[in-house]
Each structure stands twice: as C-alpha cells, then as structure tokens.
Amino acid sequence: NAGVTQTPKFQVLKTGQSMTLQCAQDMNHNSMYWYRQDPGMGLRLIYYSASEGTTDKGEVPNGYNVSRLNKREFSLRLESAAPSQTSVYFCASRSGTYNEQFFGPGTRLTVL
Amino acid sequence: QKEVEQNSGPLSVPEGAIASLNCTYSDRGSQSFFWYRQYSGKSPELIMSIYSNGDKEDGRFTAQLNKASQYVSLLIRDSQPSDSATYLCAGPRTTDSWGKLQFGAGTQVVVTP
C-alpha cells in the first residue's frame, strides 16, 4: 500500500497563476484533509472532506478551493496564486476507528 | 491562548539519555492524543496514540496522558541521533465530529553524540 500520495513534490508559480495539488489515498479512509505548514505557524487546516461528496472549510480557506473527486482523491486548487500562499502543503486521511491521521509526503510551493 | 501548546525548543539531549517532551491543551473534553515525528523537509509521521489516562509504551517511546492536569507528554528513552526531529502533539476538537485535529507548533529535539 502506498498510503497517501501527493503530486507534485515541488512547484514554482508566478503571482496570478493557478494550479491544482493532487492527493490520493489507498487506505479506504472516509475523511481527508489539506493543511499548510509555515515556519512558526505549525500545521493549519485549509479544507477537509468528512466523506465522499462533502467538503468544508478549515481555519485558512481563503484563496483555495477543493474537490473530493471520489473516495480516494481529494484535490486542492489555487485559482490565483499569491506570494502569501508560499508554503508546504500536506494532505492527510483519517482512520475512522481511532481518529489517527496519516500524512502524504507534501508539496513545496513557491509563489513569486 | 493556543489550544495545544508545546515548547518550541530546541531540546538538546545527549545520546543515550531520556528526552522528555510536554504538551498542554485547553479542551477539557479531548479524549485522545497523538504524537507525530517530523524530520526536516519531510511530512509528519504518527509515532504514538494515547486514548486514556496513564502511560502507553511502544519500544523506546512512552506517552503519558493526564486529563485532570490537561497535559500529555512523550518520553524517548536511550535517545539516538536518529531521534533528532521536530515532535508535534495533536488532539481532537471535541466540538467537532469530523476528526479535525489541533496541532501544537512542535518541539525540536537535537540528540548530540
């Protein structure tokens, strides 16, 4: 099992460009999450999906949109990238039994 | 007040010694806590889960939960240079039923040979 996978690993964008970060999990988990991690700020929740077909905002949703494509896949879209969105983005999925979350390898995004 | 708080460190520990990390939380209703290890440039990796008061041991790691005092700790025995990482404490929001976690900012541990 691959666990949680993310693509791409690295990305450089110019201000105003758009892109989609992809996430997939093969653990049959219902819930999936997108976080960003910035120095000194810890992990902050952007959006989450409690189950296939549902999505909801987290702490820092502005400038982002998400799509829960199916049970396996949860994508994060930046419609018009800004330098403030330079960060490391992690996708996670949750074991429903014990609330444990498992993280993907991350995407390091730089917006110039 | 942050809901989950940790000392940022760095915590310097001689090789072979015990590293002691602490985390306090504000949500009295939280029932379970998790410790994640994060190496520089890598993603958080779950290393311990604890669901009830008391101690839980797994290899060189021991997690302790004290609900009355609202703290959770992680002990790393016989610390090795490979334990040098940032350790994140996380607990759920009891007002939330969708499994969202609150993460501390992390404690950096440096094990010196």
What structural keywords apply?
heterodimer, A: 112 residues, 7-stranded mixed β-sheet, 4-stranded antiparallel β-sheet, 0% helix, globular, B: 6-stranded mixed β-sheet, 5-stranded antiparallel β-sheet, 53% strand
Main pleated-sheet profile of chain B: 6 strands, mixed
Q: What's the count of strands of chain A?
A: 11
Order of helices and strands of chain A: EEEEEEEEEEE
Average pLDDT value of chain A? 94
Individual helix count of chain B: 0
Fraction of residues in H or I helices of chain B: under 10%
Which helices and strands, and how do they pair?
The complex is a heterodimer of chains A (112) and B (113).
Chain A: E1 4-7, E2 10-13, E3 19-25, E4 31-38, E5 42-49, E6 56-57, E7 64-68, E8 74-78, E9 87-94, E10 101-103, E11 107-111
Chain B: E1 4-6, E2 11-14, E3 19-25, E4 33-38, E5 45-50, E6 54-58, E7 61-66, E8 71-76, E9 85-92, E10 101-103, E11 107-112
Report a brief summary of the structure.
The complex is a heterodimer of chains A (112) and B (113). With 112 residues, chain A is mainly β.
How would you describe the overall organization of this protein?
The complex is a heterodimer of chains A (112) and B (113). Helix content of chain A is 0%, strand content 53%. Chain A has strands at residues 4-7, 10-13, 19-25, 31-38, 42-49, 56-57, 64-68, 74-78, 87-94, 101-103, 107-111. Chain B is mainly β and 113 residues long. In chain B, strand 9 (85-92) and strand 10 (101-103) form a beta hairpin.
